[in-house]
Automatic annotation (TrEMBL), chains A, B:
<dbReference type="InterPro" id="IPR041347">
    <property type="entry name" value="MftR_C"/>
</dbReference>
<dbReference type="GO" id="GO:0000976">
    <property type="term" value="F:transcription cis-regulatory region binding"/>
</dbReference>
<dbReference type="InterPro" id="IPR023772">
    <property type="entry name" value="DNA-bd_HTH_TetR-type_CS"/>
</dbReference>
<keyword id="KW-0238">DNA-binding</keyword>
<dbReference type="InterPro" id="IPR050109">
    <property type="entry name" value="HTH-type_TetR-like_transc_reg"/>
</dbReference>
<dbReference type="Pfam" id="PF00440">
    <property type="entry name" value="TetR_N"/>
</dbReference>
<dbReference type="Pfam" id="PF17754">
    <property type="entry name" value="TetR_C_14"/>
</dbReference>
<feature type="region of interest" description="Disordered">
    <location>
        <begin position="182"/>
        <end position="206"/>
    </location>
</feature>
<feature type="DNA-binding region" description="H-T-H motif">
    <location>
        <begin position="22"/>
        <end position="41"/>
    </location>
</feature>
<protein>
    <submittedName>
        <fullName>TetR family transcriptional regulator</fullName>
    </submittedName>
</protein>
<dbReference type="InterPro" id="IPR001647">
    <property type="entry name" value="HTH_TetR"/>
</dbReference>
<dbReference type="GO" id="GO:0003700">
    <property type="term" value="F:DNA-binding transcription factor activity"/>
</dbReference>
<dbReference type="InterPro" id="IPR009057">
    <property type="entry name" value="Homeodomain-like_sf"/>
</dbReference>
<feature type="domain" description="HTH tetR-type">
    <location>
        <begin position="1"/>
        <end position="59"/>
    </location>
</feature>
Amino acid sequence: MREVLAQAAFQLFLERGFERTTVDDIVARAGVGRRSFFRYFPSKEDVVFPDHERCLAEMTEFLAAVGDEDPVGAVCDAARIVLRMYAADPEFSVQRYRLTREVPGLRTYELSVVRRYEQTLAGHLRGRFGTDRDGELRAEVIAASVVAAHNNGLRLWLRSGGAGDPEEAVDHALDLVRGVWEQPAGPSPAREKPALPATAGASGVTAGSGENEVIVMVAAKGTPMWRVVQQIEAAVGEG
Amino acid sequence: MREVLAQAAFQLFLERGFERTTVDDIVARAGVGRRSFFRYFPSKEDVVFPDHERCLAEMTEFLAAVGDEDPVGAVCDAARIVLRMYAADPEFSVQRYRLTREVPGLRTYELSVVRRYEQTLAGHLRGRFGTDRDGELRAEVIAASVVAAHNNGLRLWLRSGGAGDPEEAVDHALDLVRGVWEQPAGPSPAREKPALPATAGASGVTAGSGENEVIVMVAAKGTPMWRVVQQIEAAVGEG
């Protein structure tokens, strides 16, 4: 029933525009009563985004169950829950993307949903960083970065018409954020093997072993900070 | 006239709520005609945020005139234009903050304004990074980080009731983002003097001089990436 209503609404939005479609039009097309509509959707906007509530709930549940050791990695993984929702129905997601770009009311609605995802991620990080210096600040900046990176990868896929696997672009985008903000855990076997990246601008090596292991980083002064970070990450085997 | 209308609207929103106040109520309180209202404000929401359009225009103008050498610094400075707008009228800003938190319609409107600031900053960075690898991605992530950092500092000040100078908190927040993302320019006199931070986790020194200057960074492996970045920044004299 939910899907039938969403399908009907979507057809109508595409045929006559979002603003000129009423809930009565939608229920007529779907062949059900008004009450059925409002049982499933609080408003006309919610028809366009039928899965965000479920997705937010899933994200909250995931973060409540996740361990403490890698909070930045955890919020990146939590963001991937949203990606999977989009990827589950490429045609619907692409249609919605086009519709949303054309209808200001839907764009604003989408912004408020995105904000709720961001606040969920920030809330998790605040809980993990809470007592650290700048904990709240870092929580909010990292959450915003993760959302921006996720949306960049997702948008690439949507713009391409939903062809192929969106995960690659999103993983790449999230890795950039993770590389900058991640708090490394203790040494792991993967990190024992030093990597020597061949980039001209910066190079990093690991020396020693175990708990006392250090990173020695040498970079030309003009090297951009994000590249320095990439190189350090590569050297410690997290690239 | 604009201020008179904004004042009247605000009093009414506080007295009877935003939703139950009409434009007619506002013009009656201000003692002017409906047409005057719409000459200044496209909608009731715009009364609550009377300066954002001007502020967006100022931001765009500022970024169009700014040099190429420090794009991340430039968008941080652009964000400070918004801060100054809030700081110019602490009482109004604090009242509005409280009102906005209580009225969903205003929150959504504010989100769309914030999104426009973010897109303005991202557009500037895209123009600067355009041909770089991951240029668009970095532009969007940095813009989102700058906005989140700015809003974190601003919110601290608003929550405190608008007491004191908000610039300190915002500067501190923006410095965190800048430290992570800034692309250093060529050597400057300020950077010739190496700083040796006393933090246990990480230390950085600069060696050599002029164009061939390098950063040597030594850090214990468990050091969080953001602290490494802070230390490198401190070492190159930008902390």
